Amino acid sequence: MDKKGLSNIIVVLILILLTLVAVGILWIVYSNITEDKSNIAIEPFLVDIDIDPLSVQVLTVDGITNISLKIIRNPGEGNIDSLKFIIFDGTLSHEEIQETNLEELTERIYLVPIGNLNNNTLKTITVVPILLGKDGKKKTARFGEEYNFETGKTRIIDFSGGGTSSDNGDT
User: Fold this and answer.
1) How many CB atoms lie within 10 A of CB 61?
2) pLDDT band at residue 167, thresholds of 50, 70 and 90?
């Protein structure tokens, strides 16, 4: 029996096996890279709104005390279904949700009733977009905008639990 010929066959078989394993590993890596990731919701990170601080005023319409404010929609993906307004007077808060179709690069004035809050002690009003996802479900945006009645400035509020915010006093 020719042992030299047998060892050549074993070497060829081992090379074929190693090639198949390498092709399998490359296929797994390639399929993970090119996998459709459209099911990942990124809209909550892309919606950007601003409160025009010069537009904010407290006024009474038909016997109801409201906050009037202009919301500006900046560029960014995501379909805003409604806006959640959270008004705080230092002790109590009042929430109001208003349906809207605020498109990119548009602005609109909203009247938000303050509920049972005292209009003389208002501290902040926060606006948070509520988005309609591709799956038809409503999702709260990660970031909102807050206006401070005492300073007249706005800041971005992070609702992800990170607690970070930035001052936008000149916007």
Assistant:
1) 10
2) low
At 71-105, the pLDDT tens digits run: 999 988 888 999 999 999 999 999 999 999 899 99
Please give the helix or strand (H or E) that residue 31 lies within, else none: helix 3-34
Tokens of 84: 């959640």
Whole-number Å distance between alpha carbons of 124 and 155: 11
How far is CA 116 from each of CA 10, 94, 113, rounded to the nearest angstrom? 86, 8, 9
Res. 158: pLDDT tops 80: yes
C-beta separation of 101 from 48 below 8 A: no
pLDDT reported for residue 36: 59
Cα 141 from chain centroid? 3
What b/e sequence results for 124-145 when a residue is b if at least 16 CB atoms lie within 10 Å of its CB, and e otherwise? bbbbbbbbbeeeeeebebbbbb
Q: How many residues does the chain have?
A: 171
Region of 157 (left: φ > 0; alpha: ψ -120 to 50; beta: rest) is beta
Q: Quick one: tokens of 125? A: 């009003």
d(CA 112, CA 161): 26
